């Protein structure tokens, strides 16, 4: 068994995230259409809060933490374990925020990020973790800008610095690729919101939409020949 297999969670970080059908049944959308939710930054942040945060208490993420053997071998402190637990929620929200940045106007993304940061702070504080809205917003934007630049190494480094910066085995973690877990969590969260967006705004799954787009591009290519 590889060393970092000890970090493999029993469920993926996105396992309990919503699908597009959840938009229709959301209490946030009882008196709203799903399309309205996806065209208003405040409503979208509220929906993300409901499904990415309120429905997923921090206690559910304990099974994602490094196991006892890994914690002992890497000398992971209690403080680092707490930061790791908190960071799963930060990564999920960062994945959603990355999608918003890439598919909406900048002003929409900024307003969404400001609002979702308030919700994320409240979520983190349920476990008595001390932080601020500004620090939460900075963390989200750090991950989002790295993702938007398609720089997985920067995402990995940001994660390790935020969680394990003072760990004596930091270099070992970095060389071993532990930080790439952050990329997986962000991309999983991104994909969930992307799929919901496609179903709500286009009436079909992302896969179906992509197939149509690919077919159109192939047809255009043949017509130009």
List the keywords.
225 residues, mainly alpha, 11 helices, 68% helix
- Which residues form runs of ≥5 with pLDDT under 50? 1-12
Proportion of helical residues = 55-70%
Oligomer: single chain
Shape: globular
Largest sheet: none
Q: What is the rounded distance between the termini?
A: 53 Å
What is the average of the pLDDT values? 86
Gyration radius, to the nearest Å? 19 Å
How many β strands by DSSP?
Answer: 0
Strand content: under 5%
Coarse structural class? mainly alpha
Instruction: Output the helix-strand order.
Output: HHHHHHHHHHH
Give a written overview of the molecule.
With 225 residues, the protein is mostly helical. It has one domain. Helix content is 68%, strand content 0%. The longest helix has 26 residues. The N terminus is likely disordered.
Layout of SSEs?
Elements (H helix, E strand, L loop, with lengths): L19 H6 L8 H4 L3 H14 L13 H6 L4 H26 L2 H20 L7 H16 L3 H13 L5 H7 L3 H23 L3 H19 L1
Outline of this structure?
With 225 residues, the protein is mainly α. It contains eleven helices and no strands.
């Amino acid at each position: 068994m590889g060393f970092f297999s000890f970090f493999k969670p029993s469920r993926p970080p996105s396992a309990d995230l919503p699908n597009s059908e959840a938009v229709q049944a959301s209490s946030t959308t009882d008196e709203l259409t799903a399309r309205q939710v996806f065209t208003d930054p405040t409503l979208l942040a509220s929906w993300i809060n409901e499904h990415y945060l309120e429905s997923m208490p921090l206690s559910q993420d304990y099974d994602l933490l490094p196991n006892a053997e890994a914690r002992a071998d890497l000398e992971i402190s209690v403080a680092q374990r707490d930061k790791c637990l908190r960071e799963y929620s930060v990564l999920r929200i960062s994945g959603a925020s990355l999608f918003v940045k890439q598919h909406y106007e900048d002003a929409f993304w900024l307003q969404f990020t400001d609002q979702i940061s308030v919700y994320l702070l409240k979520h983190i504080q349920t476990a008595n973790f001390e932080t601020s809205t500004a620090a939460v917003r900075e963390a989200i934007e750090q991950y989002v800008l790295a993702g938007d630049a398609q720089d997985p190494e920067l995402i990995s480094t940001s994660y390790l610095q935020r969680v394990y910066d003072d760990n004596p085995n930091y270099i070992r973690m970095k060389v071993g690729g532990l930080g790439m877990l952050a990329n997986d969590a962000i991309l999983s969260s991104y994909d969930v919101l992307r799929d919901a967006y496609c179903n709500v705004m286009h009436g079909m799954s992302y896969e179906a939409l992509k197939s149509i787009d690919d077919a159109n591009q192939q047809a255009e290519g043949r017509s130009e020949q």
